[in-house]
Amino acid sequence: MRRKRAGLAFALPGLSVLVAVVAFPLGYALFLSFTRYSFIRPNYDFVGLNRYLEAIEEFYFRKSVLTSVFYVLTTVSLSLCFGFILALLLYQKLPLKGFHYFAMSLPMLIAPVGVGLIWKMILHPELGILSYLFGRRDFLGDPRYALFTLAFVDVWQQMSFVALVFLAGLRSLPKEPFEAAVVDGANFWQILRYITIPLLTPIIAVLLIYQTVVEIKTYDLVYVLTKGGPGVSTDLISYYIYRKAFLGLDLSGGSAMAYILLCFSLILIFLYYRILLKS
Amino acid sequence: MLGSSKTSRVLAQCLLWAFSLWFLLPLVWTLRSALLPENLVYTLPPAWGPWTGENFLKLFHGPFARAFLNSFMVSGSVVLIGLPIAAALGYALARFRIGGHSLRFLVLATQMLPPIVLVLPIFALFRIIGLAGKLVGLTVAYLAFNIPFMAWLLMGFFQGLPKELEEAAVIDGATPFGVFFRIVLPLSTPGLFAAGVLGFILSWNEFLFALLLSGRESQTVPVVLATFITQRGILFSQVSAGVILSILPVALLARTVDRYLVEGLTLGGVK
Amino acid sequence: MEMKKILGAFLGILVMWSVGQAQQIVLRVLMEDIPETWIIEELLPLFEKETGIRVEFEKMTYIGMHDKLVAQLLAPVNAYDLMEVDFIWAGEFPAAGWLEPLEPYVQRSGFDLSPYLPSMLDLVGYYQGKLYMIPMYSYTMALIYRTDLLNRPDLQEKYKALYGRPLTVPETLEEYVNICKFMTEHAGIPGAAMQGMRGDPNFLEFANYLFAVGGDFVDENWNVILDSPEGRKALELYVENITKAAPVGALNFNLDDTYRVMCQGGAWSFISYWWMLPNLQDCPNVAGKLAIAPVPGGSGVNGGWGWAIPWNSPHKEEAWKFISWVESKEIVRLRALRGHAPTRIDILEDPEVLAKYPFYKDVLPIIAKAKKVPIFAYTAETEDVVGREISLACTGAKTIEQAIADAAKGLEALLKKAGLLR
Asked: Is the complex ipTM higher than 0.90?
């Protein structure tokens, strides 16, 4: 009983802030998703699950979901892999660590709008530096490459934070298991596989979930770099919902889509959790 | 920890340099562009001069200096206020099984909706209670939306701590708060630093809420950066200058904090 | 004793000052952060001297303006007393009931609407017969091209040899595309810097092509006539031009990209906003080598901004005072002389203004004959939907016929949603 009360005491400040500020818009958005509310016709006629059905029937919505799934899987796995490798490297005793740490910390501090703009400048097919050095390549205008280019820019920014968290994780690991393993004669790869990674499982889980949520929400980059084109190759779901709400003036439709997205994300994360807990 | 063989060390160095160059080269290019007048930014072959500081000067005379301070205050407040709250919540979720798995996911679920759907009700709410257009309002909004993430991150770190330490302390008669403050927190300084950075960058980089909830005096850096996307064209040299200015001081600060606070504490703290 | 007196005097002054402040009305306006705004800002002290009302401009980027305005318009009281409305929202805002009808104000103050170009009033003035805005700025689209290349003797000869016609400013769209392809092949640079980015860029650019072949999106009764031989022809020529005569990456170009390319001398022409012409004079590579002409076929896309009073403005009367002052003949003339293009015929023909900006002579007929894209509640979404179809046609993912049919269907659905079509 005492433990329960102490636990509540710890959780209360955070939960109260959440309830006070976040619960209202969440509830309102949920409520809206059952109406036909739009800026042009601001009345709250109840229509049940119609908005959800309409969304699922919309061809471009479904396409956007598929594009996003592919995009999220790509960016999350790349940022996690690269971030982990970088963190391992930074954890070693190599010269000029301070310099490398400083370099790593830079991309995450740039607002996505800024990231998009500087890469737009670098990737310009005629006048950008990459085209100048490697010949004219149409990074963002070719529907075959645009999504990968977007992912590339995204990973450039995201992996630096992932590396930082992994580094923190590595630093918080207890030293005994490693000392014991060295005594037992284990080599680097064995230690990595049987000690480091298992010990880091909670961090990996958290990062996996966090990065997934972040990548699903990618829309700043799309807005600045491609606006969903060429064609519909970079029409990611958050950008799609943004357009639905602000261009289509359809806040209720956008809310329905957002909740569909939420369900997907929850399922995905639940699956992650299950898989990681098993191992 | 790495194998002591020469080749593996050289390989590791190369890889590390590769990463750092991948991060730095675009930024070096940005710095170049920041130091050129607007009409030379896109010339080919690339211009390497004449250099000018006019973009930085223009920024200082414009709203950027103010925005930088605003961003810093908001993000700093989010870290200072949010970190303790998030740590407490993370600890409750990690060790006390409050609400079981469902609460964990519920807390995270608040993050999974695209901000577009949430920003208008928040804006309306804030207008009514008078927080719209003020930095305090933005800070409150960021706290509410960043605490779940920070709590989740810290939950991961707390779960990774060996339980025996905490149990031993309880046997010795420590209260839950005592365990938290004297055992768990000191051991989690790297995690606290990471969560602090998370709270900071989420607030530092956020655009949509800042756009709608800010007034003339309370603009933040992302909003000001966006002002360089005019209907006339994008002022790349100014954007570049803005990007450079917004990251350099903070990156230096981050390194300092990490070195003295985290490394210093952990070396003393662990075991 | 002395201290008390000084303190008392200070407090008295403080009270009087704050009361004075409280009584002074301050008008807040959300404006785009561009030179035109700065020009008006310089003149604001004149307004304050005349009326005692202070005006504060909150300047911001275009890309956030719509969202920010919408948020304010949904609230009970607006933080802004007055706003400028882009033509794309000029249907949305009145349809949502967000703008104050201006007829009563015009009647009461005797404001004269006759100097305004009818095409501008149609675009950013009236919506469904009611007056909601006063035009403040025009950015009609036109053809801007390189005269040095057009007049090059060797190119002229070659063109004549190949096609039997002289190389001159094109009068039809087919001729324009032909010249663009010719330039790409023989002048060594792409013929047209096209803004193929999906959405506002390619939609507006395509609309010029559509108007140039005599087509349109809708007729007077809002029936969709996009899916027609003209529509298909326009899209065909658009796709042809962008795949054969545009720079690499044009499918992702927005306005800024095309401007950069033209500035570096990287293309022969582009169809863009008319104010690009003075803008490009700042580019050493092309200054003095450019000219403007109407979009081949005669009618380009009309664009512009208008002043409007939000329904929930805290100071409507004062806002109108400002509008009638800033759009008065005298002030428009001052603005024009400092570089702010006018929307009033009398100022566009004013001799002093023409002396300083001679190209207004060419611009006036371009604005007068411009046509507008469908302006209604969902214009912004139309840009996105139709833009998407155009982009899909350009990548080859859809045939021309399919893309035009889908675009028309999309537009029809939006018009039905807005209640303009049964």
From this structure: no
